[in-house]
C-alpha cells in the first residue's frame, strides 16, 4: 500500500485524527494529509524536535518509541518505527490507545512502498518458487473440533 | 431522631455529588506529555515540571502547524 492510500485510510478510520504526516529520520516528508506543504513540513519538524527532546531527557539510554502530548485544545502523537516516523494532531481528549494503534498500522501499511520493491515483491517470489505449471492451492479454512470430540478429550 | 439522621445523610450525599459534578465541569486538565521508551518505560511530564516546558513547546508548535493549513 502506498503512503497516500495508508494516510487516506488512517483519516477515514479515525475521526479523532485531524492531520497526520509521515516523515523520515532526516525530517523529509513522505506523505501528509495536509494540503499545505509548508504546514506538513512544520508538523514534521516540530514532531521530530519533540522526539529528540524526549530522547534527551533520559540521556539517550533508551530510545523513544512514541510520544503523546495532551494539550488543552488538542493532542499531538508521534510514533517511531526504525527510521520512519508518523505524527498526528487530534481533537482534545482522544482515545489514546486507539490513536496509537491506528498510527502504527499506518506506518506498517505504508512501509512496503517506501522500503523499496522487496516487500511488495515477496508474495510473487513465493508463488514463483513453486512447481511450474501448478497453481498454488488456496488455504483451507480451519474448522473447530466437533463438540463431541472436544467433550471426550 | 431517625428523620434528622436521614436529613444529614441526604445533605452529605448532595454535597459529595455536587463536588464531583463541579470538579468534572470546571476542573482544568493540565497539559502533559507522556513519553514511551523501547525498554518499556513510560514517563509522564505535567505542565509546570522543568522537563515539560521544552516538550510542550514543541507539541504546541506541532499542533499549530497542523491547524495552520
What does this structure look like?
- The complex is a heterodimer of chains A (153) and B (69).
- Chain A is globular, with a radius of gyration of 21 Å.
- The termini of chain A are far apart.
- Chain A has 153 residues and is an alpha+beta fold.
- In chain A, helix 1 packs antiparallel against helix 3.
- In chain A, strands 2-1-5-4-3 form a five-stranded antiparallel sheet, sandwiched between helices.
- Chain A has helices spanning 3-13, 37-56, 96-114, 118-128, 147-152, and strands spanning 17-23, 29-32, 64-71, 74-81, 84-90.
- Chain A has a single domain (3-114), classed as Dynein light chain 2a, cytoplasmic (Beta-Lactamase).
- The longest helix of chain A has 20 residues, at 37-56.
- Residues 116-138 of chain A have low confidence and may be disordered.
- Chain B is an alpha+beta fold and 69 residues long.
- Chain B folds into two domains: 1-28; 31-69, no CATH class.
- Helix content of chain B is 61%, strand content 16%.
- Chain B is built from two helices and two strands; from the N terminus they run αββα.
- Chain B has helices spanning 2-26, 52-68, and strands at 32-37, 42-46.
- In chain B, strands 1-2 form a two-stranded antiparallel ribbon.
- At the A-B interface, helix 2, strand 3 and strand 4 of A face strand 1 and helix 2 of B.
- Strand 3 of chain A pairs antiparallel with strand 1 (32-37) of chain B.
Amino acid at each position: 500500500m502506498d503512503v497516500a492510500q495508508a494516510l487516506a485510510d488512517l483519516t477515514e478510520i479515525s475521526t479523532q485524527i485531524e492531520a497526520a504526516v509521515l516523515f523520515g529520520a532526516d525530517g523529509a516528508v513522505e506523505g501528509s494529509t495536509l494540503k499545505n506543504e509548508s504546514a506538513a513540513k512544520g508538523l514534521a519538524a516540530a514532531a521530530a524536535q519533540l522526539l529528540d527532546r524526549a530522547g534527551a531527557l533520559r540521556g539517550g539510554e533508551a530510545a523513544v518509541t512514541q510520544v503523546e502530548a495532551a494539550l488543552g485544545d488538542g493532542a499531538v502523537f508521534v510514533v517511531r518505527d526504525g527510521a520512519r516516523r508518523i505524527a498526528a494532531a487530534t481533537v482534545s481528549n482522544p482515545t489514546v490507545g486507539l490513536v496509537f494503534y491506528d498510527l502504527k498500522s499506518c506506518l506498517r501499511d505504508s512501509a512496503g512502498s517506501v522500503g523499496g520493491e522487496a516487500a511488495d515483491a515477496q508474495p510473487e517470489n513465493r508463488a514463483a518458487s513453486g512447481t511450474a505449471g501448478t497453481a498454488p492451492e488456496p488455504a483451507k479454512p480451519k474448522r473447530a473440533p466437533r463438540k463431541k470430540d472436544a467433550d471426550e478429550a | 431522631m431517625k428523620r434528622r439522621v436521614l436529613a444529614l445523610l441526604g445533605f452529605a450525599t448532595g454535597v459529595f455529588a455536587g463536588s464531583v459534578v463541579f470538579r468534572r465541569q470546571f476542573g482544568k486538565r493540565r497539559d502533559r506529555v507522556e513519553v514511551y521508551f523501547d525498554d518499556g518505560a513510560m514517563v509522564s511530564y505535567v505542565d509546570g515540571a522543568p522537563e515539560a516546558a521544552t516538550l510542550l513547546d514543541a507539541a504546541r508548535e506541532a499542533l499549530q502547524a497542523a491547524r495552520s493549513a
